[in-house]
Amino acid sequence: xxxxxxxxxxxxxxxxxxxxxxxxxxxxxxxxEKGVDTFMDICTWCQDEGIPYLSVYAFSTENWExxxxxxxxxxxxxxxxxxDEVQTCIDRDIRVVCVGNxxxxxxxxxxxxxxxxEMTKGCSNLIVQIALSYGGRDEILRAVKxxxxxxxxxxxDPAELTETVFEQYLDTAGVxxxxxxxxxGGNRRLSNFFPWQTVYSEIWFTDVLWPxxxxxxxxxxxxxxxxxxxxxxK
Length: 234
What we know:
Blueprint: E1 8-12, H1 16-22, H2 29-49, E2 53-60, H3 68-91, E3 94-99, H4 107-120, E4 126-134, H5 136-152, H6 163-167, E5 180-183, E6 202-205, H7 215-233
Parallel strand pairs: 1-2, 1-5, 2-4, 3-4, 5-6
Helix pairs in contact: 1-2, 2-3, 3-4
């Protein structure tokens, strides 16, 4: 296993729909399906590189504004992934955790997620956080509401509030901050991707569409990060 100074990698998997149109498929779902394959690949590559945490942006709170049919098809694809790939994750010692406002999902989707999380909870070689129905501002607001409820019931004292205390109310409690963010697809913004956890992250943008993202592209991003860290240390 390679030594790597990236402990936690974040990926904004952008470009699935443009990839499908570029290849003249009649349905954008072909892009999302290919994107799932690339996601499984990057899990393997992270393990090869010795990266213990991976967080990916799968479905944002803003994605609910897409057509009803695309949203329905995306969740069918998601449920199929959790059913079909969970054993692969177990075999490869990959733990799957979903973060986000999961109350917005229907009961079938939530149950599928719960089963996948339960089945992989003993895995530890790679912890994968899948941001689903996720928005960074929404996460922080939900954390504030949970903290306010604890203040009201007397289990939290505002005088003792610190960043460390507040982090325990976030979806990612117990997980280290993200060291490096990769965004594919050409856009140069974070789009509400873990704003608390990326405050000190390095960011690597690429025009490569997510379904075309390769191990070589990942290596370029990691080399960039290592160069930045070396230069900062001088």
